[in-house]
Design a protein that fits this description.
single chain; alpha/beta; Aspartate Aminotransferase, domain 1; Aspartate Aminotransferase, domain 2; seven-stranded mixed β-sheet; four-stranded antiparallel β-sheet; globular; binds pyridoxal-5'-phosphate; transferase; aminotransferase; histidine biosynthesis; pyridoxal phosphate; PyrdxlP-dep_Trfase_small
Length: 381
Amino acid sequence: MLPFIRSDLAQLTAYTPHPSSTDGKPIESVIDRLDTNESPYDLPRELKQKLAWIYQETIETNRYPDAGHAVLKAAIAEYINESANLTQGAIAPAQISVGNGSDELIRSLLIATCLGGEGSILVANPTFSMYGILAHTLGIPVVTVGRNSEFEIDWVAAQAAIETTDNPPIRVVFIVHPNSPTGNTLTNAELEWIRSLPEEILVVIDEAYFEFSQTSVVGELLQKPNWVVLRTFSKAFRLAALRVGYAIASPEITAVLEKVRLPYNLPSFSQAAAILALQQRDLLLQSISLVCAERTKLIQALSQYSALKVNYSAANFVYVQSNHPTQANKFLATLAQQIRSRGTTLRLLSGGLRITVGSPEENARTLARLESAVKSCESLS
Ligand SMILES: *Cc1c(COP(=O)(O)O)cnc(C)c1O
């Protein structure tokens, strides 16, 4: 370890979205990437041309980007208000903060709440790994609780953890709605628990998959001074390459997020792309119904395997577990490796396998690979 590097970083491993091959096959052998929940659909050609024109004619590359993101924030606020069930009032642009992906916003939230020994965070596993990873890079302790067989948060354990953790106390609870990797939306019991959390605790509700689930807590946000909703353009809006995410919160929380972020966090091109995507949302979001129809087909096809336990999903991925009585994890690891060697990458987690819903062609190829891979895993009995 380099002598000038913080000692606690030695134990950390870098986040690898596409882990390098474990079966000796080079990465080029992978044809279908169903491991990072991207949209299978690139931007339509006419939108790419429009964006190229915007870049050519309106972006001066010698100038810094708009550091206030004014046009983008106004467009995001309009989109939220159109899609949210706000009984009174509206989300204002001053309640939006934009990040270089929602990952940046997660880090800003951690910096603003827990840095310097002031707080710990709480997550319910399995969930999005980035909260824990980013917390650890900042030296912030992570308290974990589990979920039941329906993947509901063990909120009794979570509540106990909040009441007993000090030095430093839990300052932030991170929740994904619908959860990744498991695909389930928040139940009424979970929502009641979240509503009961005291105002000293920041509740971050990550709605990265909102456009697929069409369920949101934004309608309650105006009454909740300690809630933040995160969204992203990386999934349904098909802009993962350009890294745009946003937070919706009170003006006070938003002001702090603006304070801790880097001034030019979002390139002009990314801002232009997100604005265009919002203007063209009717066209872009047409892909949602295709993805959801493919999700239904995928779940049906996977459910035919007695070796697999397939879960319902409100997002653009399906979480599959093993029914193997003794070697569930080994079965899934072998299965993932076999499918990968045939050309599809999936996300292997401890306890399950997450399959992103791809295009009809990607899904058909993947199901064929799964069929032959399951056969070769049958010896594991
Ligand atoms: C994909 C995903 C994000 C998106 O991250 P970006 O940095 O905006 O690409 C955020 N949260 C969860 C739970 C996700 O699955």
